[in-house]
Design a protein that fits this description.
With about 300 residues, the chain is an all-alpha fold. The protein has one domain. The protein contains 13 helices and no strands. Helix 11 runs antiparallel to helix 12 and helix 11 runs parallel beside helix 13. The chain is globular.
Length: about 300
């Protein structure tokens, strides 16, 4: 046997780099951004202690809960990924055996322990988020098999619960109802964002029987549905900010929405081609609107209508 023919033994432990790749740091941004919107909307002035809680909450929202959801998803999606993205850590063998499942379970436990140290409302939000993360990917629920329930669960975790957690961390109590209402609206809109995300895996979803909206509705109808779902909650946000006497911020969100609608017309020309482009443009405007709404509601917290 020549040196070039030497068979290298399979790794028994995953390399730290492979574990980090499994947790997908690039996906943490959405949850951490929504968390920061919750922090901003809380109306709590920053102090040394609140900054410490804020940093802890960012770690919980991003590396912990979001990282857990990515590990869980990759483990239960390993057969689909073998078709769509065989270079990922689990199907490529860089995370061998059942280490993907072990990491998902360990990260779940660590996330709950971490959340418990940040307060009871944060712990409950983490429990709901982690439960949805497992229900999204794992049997018997496997919500991701549905193009309706799967994106709804993701939107709630990435936007609503993260926003709620940010406000709860800072105030150490149940957030003001207006904060919760904004979080609900932006969570609903995130259903469309998650639907656009499914465009990258249409072929694998079809082969594995996953009923994403691009598979069940077709590319054009799914893209149109995603656009409507992203736009309508923002219309409600503009209306609410106007009713709450925050006209400048209502105008900011309104202009952002009009630009998004303009970008959506290009998306609809070829949804499969332009979905990544829209994620970099239209979704950026969407999340900037979230921040504007959070700033707008901040002075209203605790003030009755």
């Amino acid at each position: 046997m020549t040196p070039s023919e030497t068979i290298l033994p399979s790794p028994t432990l995953p390399a730290p780099r492979a574990v980090l790749e499994l947790l997908k740091p690039i996906t943490w941004f959405a949850a951490m951004w929504a968390f920061m919107c919750g922090v901003v909307s809380s109306g709590v002035a920053l102090s040394w202690s609140s900054v410490a809680f804020m940093i802890g909450g960012m770690i919980l929202a991003g590396p912990m809960v979001c990282g857990t959801s990515q590990a869980v998803n990759d483990w239960f999606d390993r057969h689909v990924d073998a078709i769509n993205q065989p270079e990922r850590p689990i199907p490529s063998g860089r995370i061998p055996g059942n280490w993907g499942l072990r990491i998902a379970v360990a990260w779940t436990v660590l996330s709950l322990l971490f959340a418990a140290g940040l307060g009871v409302w944060v712990l409950w939000a983490a429990i709901v988020g982690l439960a949805l993360s497992w229900a999204y990917s794992a049997p018997p629920f496997r919500l991701k098999q549905s193009g309706w329930w799967g994106p709804a669960a993701c939107g709630l975790c990435y936007e609503g619960l993260a926003w709620f957690t940010g406000a709860a961390v800072m105030s150490a109590r149940l957030p003001d109802w207006r904060i919760i209402w904004l979080a609900v609206l932006y969570s609903a809109g995130a259903h469309g964002i998650m639907t656009l995300n499914d465009f990258k895996a249409i072929e694998g979803d079809r082969q594995m029987g996953l009923r994403s909206l691009p598979v069940t509705l077709g590319v054009e109808r799914a893209a149109l549905f995603a656009c409507v779902v992203m736009a309508v909650p923002q219309v409600f946000v503009v209306a609410e900010l106007s009713l709450w006497h925050r006209p400048i911020y209502a105008a900011i969100v309104g202009v952002s929405l009009l630009v998004q609608i303009g970008l959506m017309t290009r998306l609809m020309r070829d949804p499969e081609k332009y979905a990544p482009w829209y994620n970099a443009t239209g979704i950026t405007l969407y999340v900037l609107g979230m921040l504007a709404s959070a700033i707008a509601v901040r002075p209203l917290v605790g003030v009755p209508l």
